[in-house]
Amino acid sequence: MYIVIWIGTALTLLGIGGLAWCIRLVLGIKRQALADDQARVAMQRVVAWNMGALAVSFLGLILVVVGVILA
Fold first, then answer.
1. pLDDT at position 36, please?
2. Residue 55, Cβ neighbours under 10 Å: how many?
3. How far apart are CA 20 and CA 44, in angstroms?
4. Element containing residue 68 per DSSP (H, E)
5. pTM of the complete model beyond 0.90
6. Burial (0-12, 13-18, 19+ Cβ within 10 Å), 25
7. Which of 16, 40, 41, 63 has a CA 20 to 30 Å removed from the CA of 71?
8. Residue 65 has pLDDT above 90, yes or no
9. What sign for the dihedral angle of Cα 35, 38, 44, 47?
């Protein structure tokens, strides 16, 4: 079960890294001072990546919890 814990930890860290990347993207979009329509399109792409990063992080945490319970 230790392998499940380590895989879950890796997925969680990957998800957190993805969230940090999304934050950097949003700050870059804000700095560019785009028009409302362009900013909205750019933010929609970031929202999709953000949801994916949250899902990966969530799955990683679930694996950690399952690994700890079954260990």
1. 85
2. 13
3. 17
4. helix 36-70
5. no
6. middle
7. 16
8. yes
9. negative
**What is the amino acid identity at position 66?**
V
H-helix or E-strand spanning residue 20: helix 2-32
- pLDDT, position 66: 95
Residue pair 54/8 in contact (Cβ under 8 Å)? The answer is no
Q: Around Cβ 42, how many Cβ atoms within 10 Å? A: 17
Tokens representing 48 are 């999709």
How far from 33 is each of 6, 25, 48, 50, CA to CA, in Å? Answer: 41, 13, 21, 21
DSSP 31-67: HHT--HHHHHHHHHHHHHHHHHHHHHHHHHHHHHHHH
